[in-house]
């Protein structure tokens, strides 16, 4: 049984339980003892914050104690640290190279990279480099934003000046894309080959995260996801966000090198991404299976909860008659 360590586990119960169903021994770490995902793992630990010098040491201790073979970061928070220090962790880190992590974290640098590689991306400028005769509407976007935070739509020059002054984030300006928005959940092997690319519609989003959507077998989107992932150098999962601005033309707006918030949808459609990740950890080389998924699968997400109570040692443990997902029993040997 392959042991998998999930860092910054947070609320990602969906990912942790999917790996467990795929046959993994799951270990979840988070700085917050109220992070619900840690209580759905076979073993868990409360670790220092990622800016604490003891963070990596705590992860190494978990890797040693549970014979961890795969590390899966579940947020953007520690991606760069893990990518830069992967040689110290003695396990497969499901992330691309550190330079790719830096490039995707900075939305403006990502745009420049896409342009260099001939991948369509909406026209974008730094505030001091805006062209004469700028056409509106445009977006003021945080270069290092997430969850659709610090994004403002400006309909004219006055609004643009206001939002550039109002936003506290290091921002850039991007043309508003016409057309329909899509997300593409991709997964690449450790050589950067795209193993699958699963597009989905964006029926409804909240806080930058898709809560309703449907898988679609659109050959152009499947190929666009593969192209972006392989040109960028993705290793493991990523979410490619794009717009169809004209027939046959798509423009990429964002790439996140992790499992997307709508992970349950490609999983339900047959992505088998957890199984592919475990195969990589075992040293296997799965063949690409582009387009092999079920189309027309619709996802609608909802809130759930987990009740906790302190045990005799003051540690929190699940306390409920019924739970939305099975909670692992006592930790076993990895």
Describe the structure.
This protein is α+β, with helices and mostly antiparallel strands. The chain has three domains: 107 residues, Rossmann fold (3-Layer(aba) Sandwich); 53 residues, Dna Ligase, domain 1, CATH 3.30.1490; 123 residues, D-amino Acid Aminotransferase, Chain A, domain 1. It contains nine helices and 18 strands. The chain has a five-stranded parallel beta sheet with strand order 3-2-1-4-5, with helices on both faces. Strands 6-9-7-8 form a four-stranded antiparallel beta sheet, sandwiched between helices. Helix 1 links the parallel strand 1 and strand 2. The longest helix has 14 residues. It starts with a strand and ends in a 16-residue tail after the last strand. The model has no long low-confidence stretch (mean pLDDT 94).
Strand percentage lies at 25-35%
- The CATH homologous superfamily of the largest domain is named ATP-grasp fold, B domain
Count of individual helical segments: 9
> What gross morphology would you assign?
globular
CATH topology of the largest domain: D-amino Acid Aminotransferase, Chain A, domain 1
Strand order across the largest sheet: 3-2-1-4-5
**Sequence of secondary-structure elements:** EHEEHEHEHHEEEHEEEEEHEEHHEEE
Low-confidence stretches: none
pLDDT average, as an integer?
A: 94
CATH class of the largest domain: Alpha Beta
Q: Roughly how many Å apart are the termini?
A: 7 Å
- By secondary-structure content and strand pairing, the structural class works out as alpha+beta
Largest sheet: 5 strands, parallel
How many DSSP-defined strands?
18
Using only C-alpha atoms, the radius of gyration works out to: 20 Å
């Amino acid at each position: 049984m392959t042991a998998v360590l999930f860092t910054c586990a947070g609320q990602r119960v969906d990912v942790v339980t999917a790996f467990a169903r795929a046959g993994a021994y799951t270990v979840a770490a988070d700085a917050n003892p109220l992070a619900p995902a840690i209580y759905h793992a076979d073993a868990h630990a409360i670790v220092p914050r990622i800016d604490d010098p003891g963070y990596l040491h705590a992860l190494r201790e978990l890797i040693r104690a549970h014979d961890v073979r795969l590390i899966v970061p579940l947020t953007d928070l520690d991606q760069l640290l893990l990518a830069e220090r992967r040689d110290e962790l003695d396990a497969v880190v499901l992330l691309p190279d550190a330079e790719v992590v830096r490039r995707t974290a900075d939305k403006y640098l990502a745009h420049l990279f896409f342009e260099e590689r001939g991948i369509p991306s909406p026209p974008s400028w730094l505030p001091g480099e805006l062209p004469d005769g700028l056409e509106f509407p445009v977006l003021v976007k945080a270069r290092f934003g997430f969850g659709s935070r610090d994004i403002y739509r400006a309909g004219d020059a006055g609004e643009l000046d206001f939002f550039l002054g109002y936003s506290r984030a290091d921002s850039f300006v991007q043309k508003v894309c016409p057309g329909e928005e899509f997300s593409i959940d991709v997964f690449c092997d450790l050589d950067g080959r795209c193993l699958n690319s699963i597009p989905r519609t964006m029926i409804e989003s909240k806080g930058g995260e898709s809560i309703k959507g449907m898988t679609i077998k659109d050959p152009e989107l499947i190929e666009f996801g593969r192209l972006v992932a392989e040109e960028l150098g993705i290793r493991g999962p990523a979410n490619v966000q794009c717009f169809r601005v004209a027939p046959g033309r798509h423009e990429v707006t964002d790439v996140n090198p992790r499992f997307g918030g709508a992970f349950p949808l490609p999983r339900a459609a047959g992505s088998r991404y957890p199984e592919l990740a475990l195969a990589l950890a075992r040293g296997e080389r799965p063949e690409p299976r582009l387009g092999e998924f079920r189309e027309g699968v619709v996802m609608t997400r909802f809130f759930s909860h987990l009740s906790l109570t302190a045990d005799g040692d003051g540690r929190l443990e699940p306390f409920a008659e019924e739970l939305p997902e099975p909670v692992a029993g006592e930790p076993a040997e990895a």
